[in-house]
Design goal:
By secondary structure, this protein is an alpha/beta fold. The strands form two sheets. The chain has a seven-stranded mixed beta sheet with strand order 6-5-4-3-2-1-14, with helices on one face. It has a seven-stranded mixed beta sheet with strand order 7-8-9-10-11-12-13. Helix content is 20%, strand content 28%. The protein is globular and about 50 Å long. The protein has six helices and 14 strands. The chain has a single domain (2-224), classed as 4-Layer Sandwich (Metallo-beta-lactamase, Chain A), CATH 3.60.15. A hairpin with a 4-residue loop joins strand 9 and strand 10. The structure holds nickel (II) ion and manganese (II) ion (MN).
């Protein structure tokens, strides 16, 4: 699998030749100003919740790529209102797609769309594909529910927010990594705004101390996993 980082919580996982893009937010991110969204490809776009820092570029990329947009029913209704036609609404539970089995699992956060409309339940995703298995928690604090994830999949890696303030910080992400029984964590949702700036070395050391690895990717970077 190949992970490519577009900043904040926007990334692409290529698995079995299928590109899955998550939480498209690039143009409003000053740190990602070198990313050209016209170059972002996707077969599927998965949306964790409706906040602007997760959907700002969703409509543009969905219309250009004709990728199938998967997210909460209310997120999908908003996308449809903006002309997106290739959609698949879900709620907490699971469904099968071309890339494998997908669980949409609870996140403890909030969710409203950029126009103020209700965004449904915020969530995270467990992808159980032929090439591997991973979990993206979306924006959330640490929850006991994360202990269910190992029942769904023996994870190859997981993507967790580490910026604090709106989500888990690195300390809680370490506990989350223990709950989900995963040793390779990619940190997201850090440095974009003043509230979520972090000390990279200190965060990595917290994971190292418990025998786990925290990767804080550079924007534009691709990593083989
Ligand atoms: Ni959010
Ligand atoms: Mn967010």
């Amino acid at each position: 699998m190949t992970f490519t980082y577009y900043g904040h919580s926007c990334f692409c996982i290529e698995t079995g030749g299928i590109k899955i893009l998550f939480d498209p937010f690039v143009r409003g991110n000053e740190l990602a100003k070198d990313i050209d969204i016209a170059g972002i490809q996707a077969d599927y776009i998965l949306v964790s919740h409706g906040h602007g820092d997760h959907v700002a570029d969703l409509v543009d990329i969905a219309l250009r790529t004709n990728a199938m947009v998967i997210g909460a029913y209310e997120v999908i209704a908003w996308a449809q209102k903006h002309g997106v036609q290739n959609v698949h609404p879900i709620n907490f539970g699971s469904a099968n797609f071309g890339f494998g089995k997908l669980h949409f699992v609870p996140a403890a956060h909030s969710s409203s769309m950029p126009d103020g409309s209700y965004g449904g339940n915020p969530g995270g995703f467990v992808v159980n594909g032929g090439e591997g298995k991973f979990y993206y928690s979306g924006d959330t604090c640490l929850t006991m529910d994360m202990q269910l994830i190992p029942r769904y999949a023996r994870l190859d890696f997981a993507l967790l927010p580490v910026g604090g303030n709106f989500t888990m910080d690195a300390d809680d992400a370490v506990i989350a990594a223990q709950f989900i029984e995963c040793d390779k964590i990619i940190g997201l949702h850090f440095d974009t705004f003043g509230y979520i700036r972090i000390d990279h070395e200190a965060a990595k050391e917290k994971f190292r101390a418990v025998g786990k690895e925290l990767i804080l990717p550079k924007i534009g970077e691709s990593i083989e996993l």
